[in-house]
Amino acid sequence: MKPLTSYEGLHCANCGASMQGEFCHECGQSIHSVLKPVHGMFEETLETVLHIDGRIVHTLPPLLLKPGFLTLEYFSGRRVRYIAPFRLMFVLCLLSFFVFHLAIDQVANKIPTNGHPLVNVDSRAIESAASPAEVRKALQDELDDLQRAKESGVLPQNLLDQIDAGTRTLRGTASRRLVELGAAPMSAASIAAPLPVAPAASRDTAKTGDATPDKPRQLTHEPESQPVRIAWLPNVINARLTALGQQLHKNWRTFKHGDAAASAEAKQRMINGVFGALPPTMFVMIPIFAALLKLFYLFRRRLYMEHLIVALHSHAFMFLCLLLITGTGMLSTWLHPHAAWIGYALGWVRGLLVFWVPTYLLIMQKRIYGQGWPMTLLKFWFVGWCYFWLLMLALTVAAALGMAH
User: Fold this and answer.
1) Claim: this prediction has a pTM higher than 0.70
2) In the chain, where are the structural domains located?
3) pLDDT over 90 (residue 282)
């Protein structure tokens, strides 16, 4: 639809006011109908996306590289070119925690269920052995470690399978090393043979020193969490805290002592709960950070809203750095086996980002509040110290609530 050049005689369909432009000056409704062909909707969507992308181009580079620039632009009234502070912080917060959640899931997948240690197969001693005797000794030492892990207790089947696979890997490596040293290789049957497992009664006797293996073992019952009773809190809050404590205890007990499927489910449930509690926690901490700035800059005669904008831009920058650090870490892990030098380069990038965070925040505080370096450093230290411990307390509470999910 082509824009109208004259709006004489036109009235707003919503409030009936005379139109003086494309938008009603009384209620703000557009003169254009929402009922339009599909190609019109596509053009409007494309225009909106390009407009947002333009604001991203103008917002993210100064947010990362120019401390205090966006905040000073916002204070001076030049706001149209940039994404609004709250929207910027909100999007970067969700995006950074989403990527960080993916990274934690990759690490958590390597954490075994049921609280048992991972099977560690190290063949470096075998590969560096200089004689067949050293190869056999290094192999026996590694097999003894796997044997002790296999006889440590009732392990889930997935760990037993890992031990058997590790055994075959070590024997295959030793056989190849023996051939390299001119000795006879190990037979295929000896390579594939699993480690022997002592009978359960023998293991119990060896552990307890009891000469009567038929004596039944005493089962221990893990006590439930105690009810929470805080005198100055209402009963409904004490009841809620008790329920959360019991659920946390149940999740942790399932993770430590449940079967493989239940333990894995409890582990993932706690991780998802923690990451679900983190964004609301940060939304609570941002006004607290603004209150700290208001307290330490009380005589600068700035409104609380100004300190809140500083807090929003500061946290948006930190979320952007968290996103970049996590993303480069995941990329480095993926590329390291194929191009190790890229992994090292990305490691330097992560180190520079970590160093840039406090430097950026210090320069930002200096530029916005305009005090000398000695006073800025002093206030930066006290604000950071107070906020660090408040943040640690809030994240601890959020982690506990999330693990009780």
Assistant:
1) no
2) 85-111+234-403, 125-208
3) yes
